[in-house]
Amino acid sequence: MEPTRLNKYLSEQGICSRREADRLIEAGQVTIDGRKAVIGEKVTGQETILCKGKPVGRASGGQKVRPVLLVVNKPRGIVCTTSDKDHAPNVLDLIQYPARVYPVGRLDKDSEGLLLMTNQGELANRIMHAGSLHEKEYLVTVDQPFNAAFLRKMREGVELKELGEKTRPCQIEAVGPKTFKIILTQGLNRQIRRMCGELGYRVVTLKRTRIMNIHLGRLNTGDFRRATPRELEELERHLGLAKDDAAQYDSDFAE
Fold first, then answer.
1. What is the pTM of this model?
2. What is the DSSP letter of 188?
């Protein structure tokens, strides 16, 4: 095996996303042959690698990981990080899934709704890739009635002074005097809350209802389900997975 970056290797082994892997490495929770790993180093997979004290890859016996993609309805108050720095209930504790899975991206502690969880690093990385313009849809309620000017400014893009960046144009429509539906193609930190704050509004509730072709639907708060073969087929088409990869996913993800 050609050397590969440790965060990518952990992702491919179904441990966590690359971003989360870097956090674990930085926190000293990943070791290679008995020493603490460092961010950016490469491995071949022949080393004895432990993550949070548990063996990974060859050290675990090299068992094949069965692909998993879960659709979760995350409640408010639950965090997506798999570390314990927030000292709050996390989504892994919530779903108690028997196989190792991790969140695809983040959903703020104060937000609720659709969260995808998987053990497939390449799938997660393609969904989260910032330049891919993947749609995410939200239902948002703010603290006061808004007008057409608010919708226009949100639609055209808002200058986020704190981040020094202007948001991409987006789709937005009112569904009530204080509630709107918005579709974003980027994922800046607390983006919707920051956009509303710049315009003088405070978000009261924020619920994600769709990621690309996967909808939250009628899934109860706190529940989860496996993605359907049809959802996976369409998702793979959006993500441009190779045909042989897609066939593997179709076979392994099937109920």
1. 0.76
2. -
